[in-house]
Amino acid sequence: MDPSASPSPSSRNPLSTVDVVVLVVYFLLILAVGLWSMWKTKRSTVDGYFLAGKNMTWWPVGASLFASNIGSGHFIGLAGSGAAAGIGAIAYEWNVRDFIYAAKICWHVNPCLARDGGLFLNCVRLIQGIVMVLLLGWLFLPIYVASGVMTMPEYLQRRFGGRRTQIFIAVLSLFIYVFTKISVDMYAGALFIQLALQWNIYWAVLMLLSITAFYTVAGDFCSSGHLKVEKTSADAFRCSICACVTVGCSPGGLAAVIYTDAVQTAIMLAGSLTLMGFSFAEVGGWDALMDGYPKAVPSIRVPNSTCGIPRDDSFHIFRDPVTSDLPWPGVMIGMSIPSMWYWCSDQVIVQRSLSAKTLTHAKGGSLLAAYLKMLPFFIIMLPGMISRILYTDDVACADPDQCDQICGNPVGCSDTAYARLVMELLPAGLRGLMMAVMIAALMSSLTSIFNSASTIFTMDLWKTFRSRPSEWELMIVGRLFVLVLVVVSVLWIPIVQASQGGQLFIYIQSISTYLQPPVSIIFLAGCFWKRANEKGAFWGLVVGMLVGCIRMLLDFIYPAPLCYEDDDRPAVLKYVHYLYFSTLLSFITLVVVVVVSLATEEPKPEQISRLTWFTRFDPVEPSCISSVVTPGRMHGLEATGGERDSNRTASQQRSANPG
């Protein structure tokens, strides 16, 4: 197809009346599901509101895990990376799998994948999220269940004691929210609205913030009147506030969030699979994709440069370990550590698994989410590559002035790939449905992040300096802090646009490799090494974050050169890929944790019992868990799925199941 024939930005299909009607019907459907879940579940207890009564079956848990992971950032960023550099970025979703099983899958998907051997071998991989979400269900979740915690900061506080590690994690979480969540989500959503409504991107950001503010204010009453828990206890009140924000302050609690996530997953998959079908039909099928992508070179580009020319290894995941954009050793190791933090210790993910009625259902939910994670390659990345073929001059623009005219970003317009397909290929109605799904996912993400960030600041930081603040003071401080976060995040959007050659998804992953590995190592040590203590965890975090932040600052000071520029960055940036740096950072943090822990006192017995993999079956005192776990529920979760120790005595079983 002649790229010059692609419609100009000004001629794109606007939203029709049918699209607007579909948008309204969609949100009414989500509201109805939320109201139904409010009626169906018990919300008068802490477990009922914050953990959906610990009565969720495997399929809504799995669907909610998938919906929590796949949002507007994935649709915009992953498709954009596919358009810019081929299938390599799917490695962030994929990882090594049993060779024979993967080979059978790859062969049955399409035998032509094996025609040159390269893509077939590259397809022999497992979605990285699959490995990590299964680690959550089979290794980490039994520890969290045995400990009786409801939040991840609570686990760290009980495992290591003291306050400084918890405060450190709180500050780090706020930085991660700004750099990889709030600014990224606002940019991704605004980019979609910009293409749909032809607005300036900052007007689109303002609209998103206005809608999100309305959602947040409307949901604020969840912390008063929906819980019949005693607020005279500081710990109980703190637990209530923390759990409230992690479920997005929905009046129906976590149950409403999970059921609406399940509906959104079904609609999102239906819409994206439909768009995938339209995309392949428009481009001419699989062979046309394989043949057309290497030829999708824009008509205007910088002469005597590689600008706008597709990579030779576009259809390879295992790429050169030295000269490529995604070296395969870094793909194998370096990206696994940040992924472990997200899937195995992030509150939003873990809380959904804790809501399962038994450990078997929690594992089933993890398994369902793992299989669903195989789909983004087909429903997001391949359509992004097709978008480059269909709209080469726009999506793959290589001249800075032309890119600035097309999408307002002189670095590149590849992140417009998916939104362009939605607006150009889908008929009226389906176009509105896909827009509704993406905006709903964005709103849900932003409201949860805003509330989580404000709670972290007020409960973990503000109360450190104010010993007895009133509830009204905490609410005011939390709202003011959200305003500060919003301003900082909006100011950060230009940096998001310009980073990593304009590839949103690669920007997210690079920042993650600088900030998240130390946290992953701390959780690994806490869960699987009984000798790890508070001093080791704290100094491991300090050293790891210092090294990571130095590298991140260097990346911003010396950005990667564009395709027509010489690379004159310092050697540590020029020759040490960020995935290799992630591996090095993890090793440094681990060494500090081990050395300091061995050089200082052993942790107290109460900091180990039922808080590590090897002590999860220890007897437990009823008073240790009475405030957070319904009697008998923990025992039920442990006993299911073979998690109960066969050597446990009857008296120990009774102590673990009081009453």
Features:
globular; disordered N terminus; 31 helices; mainly alpha; 659 residues
Written account of the structure:
Helices cover 66% and strands 0% of the residues. It has 659 residues and is mainly α. Helix 9 (164-197) packs antiparallel against helix 22 and helix 26 packs antiparallel against helix 28 (578-599). The longest helix has 36 residues, at 430-465. The radius of gyration is 25 Å and the shape is globular. The model is unreliable at 1-11, 96-127, 217-252 and 623-659 (pLDDT under 50).
Write the layout of secondary structure elements.
Layout (H helix, E strand, L loop, with lengths): L16 H24 L5 H5 L7 H12 L2 H14 L13 H11 L8 H6 L4 H20 L4 H9 L3 H34 L3 H19 L14 H13 L6 H31 L2 H7 L35 H7 L1 H10 L1 H8 L4 H14 L3 H15 L1 H4 L4 H8 L9 H9 L4 H36 L5 H28 L5 H12 L1 H12 L5 H24 L13 H4 L3 H22 L22 H4 L7 H7 L10 H7 L3
Helix pairs in contact: 1-12, 1-22, 3-12, 3-16, 3-17, 4-9, 4-18, 7-15, 7-17, 8-9, 9-10, 9-22, 9-23, 9-24, 9-26, 10-22, 11-22, 12-18, 12-22, 14-28, 15-25, 18-21, 22-23, 24-26, 25-26, 25-28, 26-28
Label the overall shape.
Answer: globular
* Mean pLDDT across all amino acids: 76
- Total of DSSP H or I helical runs spanning 4+ residues: 31
Helix content: 55-70%
Helix and strand composition category: mainly alpha
Taking the alpha carbons of the first and last residues, their distance comes to: 72 Å
User: How many β-strands, per DSSP?
Assistant: 0
State the major sheet: none
The radius of gyration over CA amounts to: 25 Å
